[in-house]
Amino acid sequence: MNQLKAIWAYRYFIISSIKTEFRSRFARSSLGGVWMVLHPLAQVAIYALVLSAVLAAKLPGIDNQYAYAIYLMAGTLGWSLFAEVFGRSLGVFVDNGNLLKKMAFPKIALPLIVTGSALVNNLLLFGAVLVVFGILGHMPTLMLLWLPVLIAVTLALALGLGLALGIINVFVRDIGQIVPIILQFWFWLTPVVYVSTMIPAKYHALLMLNPMSGIVMGYQNILVYNKAPDVSTLLYPATIAIVALSLALFMYFRANEEMADAL
């Protein structure tokens, strides 16, 4: 309860920090926040050009000549939100060590700032994806109303795992070097650039052990196939997210005092 009161007391600090981070990132850029949209869309274009000839014929249920590009953008939208929150939470305390020593504010505000900033970036990307979908002749339906559920699960999973590892990273800096490598493998173990049905049936259960598989497939169901996500595939990542958040908060309360000394 004390932490919740502290977060509420510093709510304006958190909001202003998100705004400041957004402005400072593109302070001297003529295109500003457009770059946050161009980078992931450029990645989608590269994958589409390289892999569409191989995979376009294996995307049933999409009646569009740009089916693979649409499929890629849907998966990228979910993965980019997870990767940004998870990756930045990993170093959130180490990167702000000097700030923590000079200012008195609840440390838990830092991951919330990271989460808020990543959510703003992802919403901008979502808007750009909808524009591209319209240009390509593929308009999502009211199934978009399911997206807040997927976003909430994605944020909880990324913040829980990232915060737990971020606390360990304060004391064992090797974590900050190993996890980005793991994240690269994790991307290819998630059906973002390929369809889950391409995986042999005997390995499908292993694929679904990856909590991001169900989340990304949910994004694809909503944005590509215009249908509700399979709730059964979301129960597992939601459970992992709750467990990860609980563990991260437990570790935070135990290590809160020691982190300042280690930094």
Structural notes for this entry:
- With 263 residues, the protein is mainly alpha-helical.
- The chain has one domain (41-54, 62-262).
- Helices cover 76% and strands 0% of the residues.
- It has twelve helices and no strands.
- The protein has helices spanning 2-9, 11-25, 34-55, 67-90, 92-95, 97-102, 109-135, 147-171, 174-188, 201-208, 211-223, 231-262.
- It is globular and about 55 Å long.
Provide a short characterization of the protein structure.
This protein has 263 residues and is mostly helical. 76% of the residues lie in helices and 0% in strands.
- Contiguous helical run count: 12
Cα radius of gyration in angstroms = 19 Å
Fraction in beta strands: under 5%
How many E strands?
A: 0
Amino-to-carboxy terminus distance: 26 Å
Helix content: over 70%
How many separate domains make up the residues?
A: 1
Secondary-structure blueprint:
Elements: H1 2-9, H2 11-25, H3 34-55, H4 67-90, H5 92-95, H6 97-102, H7 109-135, H8 147-171, H9 174-188, H10 201-208, H11 211-223, H12 231-262
